[in-house]
Design brief:
Blueprint (H helix, E strand, L loop, with lengths): L5 H14 L2 H8 L3 H15 L4 E3 L4 E3 L1 H29 L3 E7 L3 H17 L3 E7 L13 E4 L9 E8 L1 E5 L1 H5 L15 E2 L6 E8 L2 E8 L7 H9 L4 E5 H10 L3 E3 L8 E7 L6 H20 L18
Parallel strand pairs: 3-4, 3-5, 8-11
Antiparallel strand pairs: 1-2, 5-13, 6-13, 7-11, 7-12, 9-10
Amino acid sequence: MANPHLLRDMTLFVEVARRRSFSQAATVLEMPVSSLSRRISQFEANIGLRLLDRTTRKIALTTYGETYLAQAIRLVEDAQRSFDDLVAQGKGPSGFLRVAAPTDFWAVRYLSEIAADFTRQNEHVHVHLDLHAAPVDLVQEHYDLAICTEAPREASLIVRKIGTLENGLFASPDYLSARPRPEHPHDLTGHEIVLSSAATRIEVGFQRGIESVSVNVGGSLSCNSLSLARRMAIAGFGIAATSLINVERDVRSGRLEAVLPDWSLPQTDIYVATTSRLVPAKVRSFIEHATQHLARTFAVTARPPEASPKRVPCVRAV
C-alpha cells in the first residue's frame, strides 16, 4: 500500500539534509522544530534505517542518508516543478523570488530595469534583489538564484553563463595630462594603477590581435569594487581596470578617457547559479528574461564609447 505521506516526509528530509540543521529547515518549512524532528524520526522508523546522525552540535548524513538524499532531491524537485508548471499554465509564474546579485555598478543600474520589466510581465511574481559584495550561500540564505561574476566553487550548484563584460583601462584627463600617456602595456609600470585585489602589485594580461603581453603593475590603492575603482579613477588617483559598461557615461561626458584602447583585457563572465536544474517556473522565466536583456545591453557596450565632441571639465563622482 502506498504511503500517503511519503513525498511530504521526503521533502522534510531533503530540507534538513541540505541545511544540516533542524532549526533552519523548520524556519523554511514554517513548522515547529519538535514536529519536524518527530516526522524525520518516524520517517527513519518506517524505512528501518538511520539517515541522519544527530549530536548536540551538528547533523551529519549516514551512508544510507547520502545515497537516499541524491535520489530524494531529484524526486522532490521534479514534483515541485510539475506543480509549478501546472500553476503557471493557469496564471503564469508566481511566488516570491529572492535574487542575490553583486554590488557592481552594472548590476545596480540594469538589474533594477530587468526586475521591474519582469514583474510587469509576470504580475504574480514578487522579485527581491539582495546585493552582496561577497558570494552568498544559496541554500543557507534561502536564495532562489544568484547572479555573480565569478563561477561558484560549490560542485553542488548549477551554474550557467548568461553574459560577458568587456573590460578596459580608464583614467581622468587630469591624471593623464600630468604624466606621459601609456602607448604600450609595458608603459604602465611607471603609473599608479588602482588594483583589483589586496596586493601591492598584480600581473595583468593584454592582447592585441595575435600579440599577447603580460605586465606586472602596481599602485598605492586597491579595492574589490568596480564602482569604487571608477570613483578613484575619476578623482585622478590612478588608472583603473573596469568594465566598459561601468564607465560609458563617464567617457562620453569627458570625466574619464580610455587608456590603451587598442589592447584588450580579459573579459568578465557573468553567471547565474541555482541549487538545481529543476527550478520553479518563476526562476526559469527570470533567468531567461535576464539573459535576453543583458545580451542586448552588453552588445551596445562591446566597444569603448567615444567622448562627446563637446568636452566638459573633469569633475568628481557624486
